[in-house]
Specification:
single chain, 15 helices, mainly alpha, about 325 residues, elongated
Length: about 325
């Protein structure tokens, strides 16, 4: 299929359509194709926004740490705290009969400006971090769309990989199957994070636990469908692609608690474990440990950031494999702190 030069973002959509025809499945819904085009249209700008926000967060955090080391931050907070301390001493000395009498204009102003100064210090790096990763507090609509519809992109690439395996020659088939396995792994990761990336839930919603359990069941069923390729060959590709399209359609409709129906699950199916939080915590601890270890060695100051960065990249590569580039923002945050 020829791709129009005026719409270069049609590449994935056209490949998805061709793969569905090869697998003898219905074409993708129009809304799904539109969302994929919208996400792909912004794909060229998202890395620039992410790099700019990461650079801002690192530089700003470096300035905060430098001010703290030089004692500038302490001097500012001491100025804010002096009126409050004077008011507290007034209560202890008995010069005021109640606390309300100590809440004079200088004390309230000191508390107010201290809060403003703290927000001014922490708000820019926090907003830059959320904007770079496309979280709910992101200031860029492009990164929010990129993050929110990442599951559709990974599913489209997974279905395309299924079509590539079916149409591959015997010499190219092993490589196509390896590529399909990698795409399924990325899809599993997107499904396990869908309750966080969808933007449909508040941070402390009681619905998260049930949605997490359902996502783990979906991933378990997806793994069973993928494993049938080893026994059934090409016959298992169409059911696998159909399962992926059903998950993508439900995610597109916002039905993240019903990505699959109960009858789609096999009997006695056990949910998979989500090790993502533990791996993230382990990466943070190991990288921080490397930073402390490097500081104890006789390493030149101008070389220390590169040594810590190299150790961090190695740790992320060991924990996340080919997905390590998705977590380089964590490395920047730790190095900046």
């Amino acid at each position: 299929m020829r791709i129009s030069k005026s719409r270069p973002n049609e590449g994935l959509v056209s490949k998805l359509t061709t793969s569905l025809e090869r697998l003898e499945l219905p074409s993708a819904p129009r809304k799904m194709r539109a969302l994929l085009r919208a996400r792909l249209y912004r794909s060229g700008r998202v890395p620039l926004i992410g790099l700019s926000c990461s650079f801002l967060a690192v530089v700003w955090t470096d300035g905060m740490v430098s001010n703290f080391i030089q004692g500038n931050a302490q001097r500012i907070y001491l100025q804010f705290s002096q009126p409050t301390v004077n008011g507290w001493h007034s209560i202890e000395s008995g010069r005021f009969r109640s606390i309300n009498e100590t809440l004079t204009s200088p004390t309230l102003k000191a508390i107010f400006f201290a809060a403003i100064w703290t927000a001014f210090q922490w708000l820019p790096p926090v907003l830059a971090y959320h904007t770079a990763l496309g979280h709910r507090w992101s200031l860029s609509r492009k990164t929010r769309i990129w993050k929110r519809y990442g599951v559709l992109d990974s599913i489209a690439r997974g279905v395309t990989a299924c079509g590539d395996v079916m149409g591959a020659s015997p010499a190219r088939r092993p490589g196509a199957q390896r590529h399909l396995a990698k795409q399924i792994s990325l899809i599993e990761d997107s499904i396990l994070k869908i309750h966080r990336n969808s933007g449909q839930l508040p941070f402390r919603s009681h619905r998260r636990r049930e949605l997490r359990k359902h996502a783990q069941l979906v991933v378990s069923q997806l793994r069973n469908a993928e494993s049938r390729i080893d026994a059934d060959g090409d016959v298992a590709l169409t059911p696998l692609a159909s399962l992926l399209m059903k998950i993508g359609t439900r995610a597109m409709e916002g039905r993240i608690g019903a990505l699959l129906d109960k009858e789609d699950f096999e009997p006695d199916l056990r949910p998979v474990r989500d090790w993502e939080p533990l791996r993230l915590a382990a990466a943070a601890v190991l990288i921080a440990g490397c930073a402390v270890g490097v500081s104890l060695l006789s390493v030149p100051d101008d070389v220390t950031p590169y040594v810590i960065g190299g150790c961090g990249v190695a740790i992320l590569a060991l924990l996340y494999g080919r997905r390590a580039h998705n977590f380089l923002g964590l490395l920047d945050a730790i190095r900046g702190a």
